[in-house]
Amino acid sequence: MEQETIEIRPKDETWDEAETQEKTEIQDNVEPRESVEVQKKNEAPDEILLAALKLFSQKGFFNTSLTDIAKQAGLKNTSAVYPHFKNKQAIATQLYANILDSLSASIDDIRCKNPKSSGQLRGIVDLLFKLTDDAPDIMRFLLILKLDEFLPDEKSMLESPPFIKIHKIIQSGIKAGEIRNIDPILVNAYFFGIINTTLRFKLTGMLEKAADAYQGQAWIAAWNVIAKK
């Protein structure tokens, strides 16, 4: 199954690859190229977000300073951060929003490709295990950090769009007879309890192999708990 990746980009930025390429070709013919300084300024928000993600996931939010983030992003000092983000919490808020937006879009794609709830859940599990191997900082941010401690005003994970969509997948599975007829919240807890615990073990070093090595076992265990016999 083709896997989706999560990209860390400013929340309000949208783009179309083909359109962007076309515009670039036109501009190259009629306008001088941007200076290196302007290009760096335009790239700064992305660099700041990526630097913060790495530091937050490895050191924790409270052990990371704005100076650390600026240095990791290749900026001269913290004054280069303020035009883009007013403080460290604003960076974390943007990161959280971007990750949830990308995860939500990935789940939409998975739902389109798989008509059954079982296939949709399997696709989501595939995505989470792939992210754990390929983008562990994202998964540490979601599964290891205590987000409510530094993002108290943000919705919890269970109230976020991606998990509302997962809740609907579970409801559809119950209605179709694929999933046991119990409270969907309990189904979510049983199923993702196994999946997320496995991923946490991997992210914290308790499991030595790549996450992919444990995916099949975790899926079987999680699905057998909720599947209607």
Explain what the structure shows.
There is one protein chain. With 229 residues, the protein is an all-alpha fold. The chain folds into 2 domains: 72 residues, Homeodomain-like (Arc Repressor Mutant, subunit A, Orthogonal Bundle), CATH 1.10.10; 138 residues, Tetracycline Repressor, domain 2 (Orthogonal Bundle), CATH 1.10.357.10. 66% of the residues lie in helices and 0% in strands. The N terminus is likely disordered.
Short description:
The chain has 229 residues and is an all-alpha fold. It has helices spanning 17-30, 36-59, 66-72, 88-113, 117-134, 136-143, 147-150, 161-176, 184-203, 212-226. The protein has ten helices and no strands.
Rg result: 20 Å
Number of helices: 10
**Strand percentage, roughly?**
under 5%
Average pLDDT over all residues: 87
Largest sheet: none
Distance between the termini: 26 Å
Helix content bin: 55-70%
- Class inferred from helices and paired strands: mainly alpha
The poorly predicted ranges are 1-5, 10-15, 22-31
